UniProtKB/TrEMBL annotation:
Residues 44-223 form the FAD-binding PCMH-type domain. PROSITE patterns: FAD_PCMH. The lineage of its organism: Bacteria, Bacillati, Actinomycetota, Actinomycetes, Mycobacteriales. GO terms for biological process: lactate catabolic process. One of its GO terms (molecular function) is D-lactate dehydrogenase (NAD+) activity. InterPro entries: FAD-bd_PCMH (IPR016166), FAD-bd_PCMH-like_sf (IPR036318), FAD-bd_PCMH_sub2 (IPR016169), Oxid_FAD_bind_N (IPR006094). It comes from the Bacteria. Gene3D superfamilies: 3.30.465.10. This is FAD-linked oxidase.
Length: 472
């Protein structure tokens, strides 16, 4: 925690820059969506910032960051606050710096040209707003989180990892999926540094621990006419076969392939009437020209298309993708708050067999929800059986059992990067942190070289984490 005097001195230095020490504001701006995890629900409650700062421009951000550096005030950067792992919670007080006012598409390398390349936006730009701006030109982002309507692009790069589009394009970390990042250092005279090539991954998914992202440049792809489909299969094995086959059909343009075993379809009030009780469901987004191929594959696997509409026009009142990825658990928990899952990555070799094996061997634990995605150059999927949380010991036990069954587990019930195991934190990341954050003020407790506090120990699981061959 900072001293009252240092916060007072910071306030003086902020001058007219929007800031607040109102307790209610501090509480609400110190939370993200960590309550989705029963492990984090109580653990992170009450961890609040001491000051909230909302710069309106990059220049104001620079002044605020310089002042924090001068007074050695810890900094937690905040986008829309939709992170689920408590990444956005200030673990040691200090300042929450909200960057949501830094918005706008500032470079659109495709505007008016036949062959666009990339789109560049300020960090606080809402992800869906970027697509809204470039789609009239016939282009869109390769991928976005299921929270695209709320999440900022900087928050997605710093806190997210994949999403809608990943079944075609891979995850954010895969080479070529982030073109460039502009990062501000936390020094008494902050610098702006442009990262390209492999360096982007050093800051990506670092929870804002080794630099403040100010601009993001991403590759674009043709914006097809996307259709949403709700597909039922009598058996989960058929849904799995279809999901793997459609993802391995490179000519079929798809954006999301989200299988849910029985009884999970019944947990979505909007789909329960479409999918016969007892059956599995796949939520799918496909380009209109690929729908005939989808129909072939559905029929070949004994399924039935129960509903189809243009993107965003469903009777369920939201884009279909808001029922997939992180949103699925949100819907399940509306029915039963105790439900959780683990972020298990399935082996790429014999993927279909692994999906079926886990489904059968862990049937007693709960029904499986998966998201198909490419990662590190090959097809995989992530997810796990959905089960009722009982205790940290139960979670550890299930983690070990699923790993013995061949899955690779990232711990999404911790805000500590090393314990999560989704992002490698090696010498390069640590070196960036020393250079970009020499006083160690950013994201304290989440990515320090040695973290041994109560949060690390009480959220630890015996998880293997993920590793990457191509993008390391
Ligand atoms: C229902 C639900 C569904 C989700 N679905 C997906 C999904 O499909 N795919 C996926 O990858 N994630 C998903 N997520 C988690 C994901 O991290 C967020 O939805 C989103 O991408 C984060 O954006 P945000 O603006 O809310 O960031 P925040 O939550 O505000 O921040 C996330 C992290 O990044 C840091 N940060 C924010 N801005 C900056 C910056 N400018 N510089 C440095 N650090 C910064 C924060 O300190 C924090 O550690 C989901 C979450 C929910 C609740």
């Amino acid at each position: 925690m900072s001293t009252t005097e240092s916060i007072d001195r910071l306030r003086t230095d902020l001058g007219a820059i929007d800031h607040s020490t109102d307790a209610r504001k501090l509480r609400s701006k110190s939370r993200d969506r960590f309550a989705q995890s029963p492990v984090l629900r109580d653990l992170l409650r009450g961890r609040n910032a001491e000051i909230f700062i909302a710069p309106q421009t990059k220049d104001e951000l620079r002044i605020a960051v310089a002042a924090c550096a001068r007074h050695r005030i810890p900094i937690t950067v905040r986008g829309a606050g939709s992170g689920q792992f408590g990444q956005g919670v200030p673990l040691s007080g200090g300042a929450v710096i909200d960057v949501t006012a830094l918005t706008g598409v500032i470079g659109w390398a495709g505007a008016g040209k036949a062959v666009p390349r990339t789109v560049r936006a300020l960090t606080g730009t809402v992800v869906a707003d970027i697509d809204a701006e470039i789609r009239p030109s016939g282009w869109e982002l390769r991928m976005h989180p299921s929270t695209a309507q709320q999440a900022t692009i900087g928050g997605y790069i710093a806190g997210g990892h994949a999403g809608i589009g990943s079944c075609q394009w891979g995850i954010l970390r895969d080479t070529g999926n982030i073109t460039a990042l502009e990062v501000m250092t936390v020094e008494e005279q902050p610098r702006l540094i442009e990262l390209r090539g492999r360096d982007v991954n050093t800051v990506h998914h670092a929870y804002g621990a080794n630099g403040i992202i100010t601009e993001v440049e991403l590759p674009v792809t043709p914006a097809w006419e996307w259709h949403e489909l709700v597909i039922s299969f009598p058996e989960f094995e058929q849904a799995a076969r279809f999901s793997v086959d459609i993802c391995n059909s490179d000519g079929v343009l798809k954006k999301v392939v989200s299988p849910h075993a029985h009884p999970l379809p019944q947990y979505f009030p909007d789909f329960a009437g479409m999918v016969p009780d007892g059956q599995a469901m796949v939520l799918l987004m496909a380009a209109v020209q690929s729908v005939p191929n989808v129909e072939d594959l559905v029929h070949a696997n004994g399924g039935q298309i129960r509903y189809r509409c243009l993107e965003g026009k469903g009777t369920y009142g939201a884009p279909l993708y808001e029922f997939t990825w992180g949103h699925s658990m949100m819907h399940y928990q509306r029915l039963n708050k105790k439900l959780i899952g683990l972020l298990a990555l399935y082996p790429q070799q014999d993927l279909y067999e692994a999906i079926v094996r886990i489904h059968r061997d862990f049937a007693d634990l709960g029904p499986v929800h998966l998201e198909m995605k490419r990662i590190d150059g090959d097809l995989s999927c992530q997810g796990s059986p959905v089960f009722e949380f009982e205790s940290q010991e139960q979670l550890a036990d299930i983690t070990e059992k699923l790993q013995r069954a061949g899955l690779f587990i990232a711990n999404t019930h911790t805000p500590v990067l090393g314990a999560s195991g989704m992002k490698p934190w090696g010498p390069k990341e640590a070196a960036f942190k020393r250079e970009f954050d020499p006083y160690g003020l950013l994201a304290q407790g989440k990515a320090d070289d040695v973290v041994t506090d109560d949060i690390t120990t009480s959220t630890a699981l015996p998880n293997s984490g993920w590793s990457y061959r191509l993008s390391n």
